[in-house]
Amino acid sequence: MELLEKLEILANAAKYDVSCSSSGSTRKNKAGGLGNSYASGICHSWSEDGRCISLLKILLTNYCIYNCAYCVNRSSNDIPRAYFTPDEVAKLTVNFYRRNYIEGLFLSSAVITSPNHTMELLTETVRKLRNIHNFNGYIHLKAIPGADLELIKEAGSLVDRMSVNIELPSASGLKLLAPQKKQDLIIRPMDYIKLQIYEHKEERKISRKVSHFVPAGQTTQLIVGATPDTDLNILQLSEKIYKNYELKRVYYSAYVPVSEHPKLPQISQPPLLREHRLYQADWLLRFYGFRAEELLNESQPNFDLELDPKTNWALRNLHLFPVEINRADYETLLRVPGIGVKSAQRIIRARQVRAVTFDNLKKFGVVMKRAQFFITCRGKYGGQISLENKLLRQYLIAKPKPIQHSSPYEQLSLFNESVPSIPSEVMLSNLTGEL
Amino acid sequence: MLVYIYDGSFPGLLTAIYESYYRREKPEEILAQDQWQHTLFAQEVVIKTDEKKADKVYQAIKDKISGFAARNAYCVFLAEVPGAEMLIYNYLSRGWKLGAKLDFHLADEAVLQVHTVAKKVRQEAHRMLGLVRFRLLKHELYYAQIEPDHNILQMISPHFARRMADQNWIIHDVKRGLAAVYNQVEWVLTPLERPKTISLDETGLFYESLWQKYFSSIAIKSRKNLRLQRSFLPKRYWKHLVEMDESRSRFAESSVLSPQSPVKTYK
Ligand code: SF4
Q1: Inter-chain contact B164–A269, Cβ cutoff 8 Å?
Q2: Would you say residue B261 lies in a domain?
Q3: Of the given ranges (A68-77, B86-95, B251-260), which has the lowest mean pLDDT?
Q4: pLDDT, position A19
Q5: In terms of DSSP bridges, do strands B168-173 and A138-142 run parallel, antiparallel, or are they unpaired?
Q6: Is residue B255 part of a domain?
Q7: Ligand 1 atom index nearest CA of A73
Q8: Contact call for A98 and B213, based on CB within 8 A
Q9: Hey, whose CA ends up nearest to atom 5 of ligand 1?
């Protein structure tokens, strides 16, 4: 089969994995070598769905021995199949990299022959890149659940980031849609990677000769909307994952209907807005000091699609508002709808030299449309209507937007006037600036 | 009206600031030679660039204000927006008074304007780190053309010297006729005209078609959102991206690339 054709098949098969970030690593180039990594990540292009292209994201093969219902690559699906040799992937990566098309490689695979065999091929590919091609660019490798931990260990010492996808957010979902996968098979490599990261860090404190182990940390992906799990289930799971396994990121992927399986929901469009709300909530967990049960509870287990999670939370906690911009501490400012990390920092900085006014707030990037109801500036309240007014909710609901918005890269264009700044993770933190 | 005329270089501008300080006068405008048209009513002062004076001012910015302020001033200079000189002048004037806290005064117009422009320049430089597209020419030379809004070539070149350390490359700002040329040891900045044609390496073309194929395969059709794509990647940048249709069939065969003598060498 021609390389061109293989690339088409194996890029197509990989595209539902939403993670694309190339951030978090500071690997340096070696003498006479090629490549390094850039801590905040770099986007190289944007595809027609508006997602940033940073890494060459492909599967080594889409031949699979498993038959997970939600997946295009399931063994019962009648689709064109292909596989790359480790050499082909290495060459492709290097040649794309030399032309500055990509930051590096994101290599994943369906399970061919056995988990061990697959993991061995993946590891061989990164070994070639690092040792033969002297390639020091970014590599994100998928760890195959069920593979020997020794194999995962070798791979981990070569790559920048690893991920094990949980995909289905509950054990019951797994049983229904991927009965061949066991939850502890997924958790085991995750736990192992976490431990190795920790051990290598400790050893590196003693000797710099000890190699790095996945310096950019591990991530995972959850599919949203393929199972009946609520947003609360999903968010609590994320919270647990961040806490117990110290993951860098949990990615959410709106389920794209790829099969007519009787056990799967019949939907025509991926639930993009729901995915978007989960990303927003995820930011609130990681950077805003919120806990999952503050945002959702048994009586409201799913996000309001009309309001972002923070505004929604504020409406249920009106007794905490309004807050005085010139006195509130940083944590309190962060909880005001319309104020994000960046604008909160600007407020804190600016008020050291002079009291902040409403006019200033706009320039600091505060979204006044939302913030006005929840703040006072030098004792003055600036909201169009008072906090007690029944119409408040109506005022806060933004004009209906085309529902296509979602995915981590997109939120910016919704909330940030300075879209173009690029590194996905950095941009994302700006974005939250306006949540 | 008092107008300072300088040679258009950054040291030239710093010299102008030096002169203004010691002559205790404030120019109403500071203009590069090539932007200056003589008028009857202006009192012109031609500034002779003096590296020593420029260094003194630069050091003073770092000592009396901050390194951040010095970098901001340089970014605004590279922005090449009309009136940039006076933006820098006013910003630094505030800085002499306010010292290290200058950049906390976010509500101050002079500070805010400089921050806004500097941010744009930094954003474009960062964006360009991803958007430079090298094409493989004969003799193993990787060549890229760019046309950025701001003069960011020297901001991005060190990144590529570190990253593509083992290949020969040229990044050519065809809008400004300026190129960064790297020979696996050091890079130099040199004037370079737009070549009429270039001679591409054939295997190079193969990888370009692979990249185009990858680019079209990776998009999820049911999430198509062209407006969003354009908001991240404005159309004006598409011309030099091999994955975009706009860029096809732009280059023909064979050409001569003859850099003139370098103006500056960086290791
Ligand atoms: S193991 Fe992975 S590739 Fe194979 S069917 Fe399941 S999800 Fe798809």
Answers
A1: no
A2: no
A3: B251-260
A4: 67
A5: unpaired
A6: no
A7: 8
A8: no
A9: A74
Contacting residues of A for B241, CB less than 8 Å apart: 45
* B91 and B195 part of one domain: no
CB contacts of A421 in chain B (<8 Å) are 123, 126-127
**Does residue B18 sit in the same domain as residue B95?**
yes
Q: Which of A35, A353, A357 sits opposite B163 (nearest CB)?
A: A35
Eight-class DSSP state of B63: I
Calculate how close chain B gets to A50, using CA atoms only, in Å. Answer: 4
Pocket of ligand 1 (CB under 6 A): A 64, 66, 68, 71, 73-74, 110-111
Question: Is CATH 3.40.50.300 the right assignment for the domain spanning A3-302?
Answer: no
Question: Does B139 share its domain with B122?
Answer: no
The reply to whether residue A350 touches residue B106, judged by beta carbons under 8 angstroms, is yes
Provide the number of structural domains found in chain B.
2
- What SS3 state is found at A205? helix
Q: Please report the DSSP string for A138-181 in residue order.
A: EEEEEPPTTS-HHHHHHHHTT-SEEE---BSSSHHHHHHH-TT-
State in Å: Cα A69 to ligand 1 middle: 9
The answer on B220 and B150 residing in a single domain is: yes
Cβ contacts of B214 on chain A, cutoff 8 Å: 7, 11, 56, 96
Sort out which chain A residues have CB atoms less than 8 A from B242's CB and list them. 99
What residues does each domain of chain A span? 3-302, 309-396
Hey, what are B247's tokens? 């860029």
* Same domain (yes/no): B145, B86: no
Report how many helices (DSSP H) and strands (DSSP E) chain A contains, helices first.
17, 11
- What confidence score (pLDDT) does residue B263 get? 55
Indicate the residue among B58, B91, B126 that finishes a domain: B126
Give the Cα separation of A336 and A343 in Å (integer): 11
Residue B42 lies in a domain: yes
Dump pLDDT digits (tens) for A155-185. Answer: 999 999 999 888 888 777 777 777 777 777 8
Residue A348 CA to ligand 1 center (angstroms) comes to 48
Please give the model's pTM, rounded to 2 decimal places.
0.83
Assess whether B148 and B74 both reside in one domain.
no
Q: Is B107 found in the same domain as B31?
A: yes
Classify residue B260: in a domain, yes or no.
no
Last residue of a domain, one of B104, B126, B148: B126
Minimal C-alpha gap between B21 and chain A (Å): 27
Angle between helices A183-206 and A149-156 (to 10 degrees): 50
User: For B126, phi and psi rounded to 5 degrees?
Assistant: -65, -40
CA of A357: which chain B residue's CA is closest?
B107
Same domain, B150 and B240: yes
Q: In whole angstroms, how far apart are CA B250 and each of B196, B230, B247? A: 11, 21, 6
Question: For residue A110, is pLDDT > 50?
Answer: yes
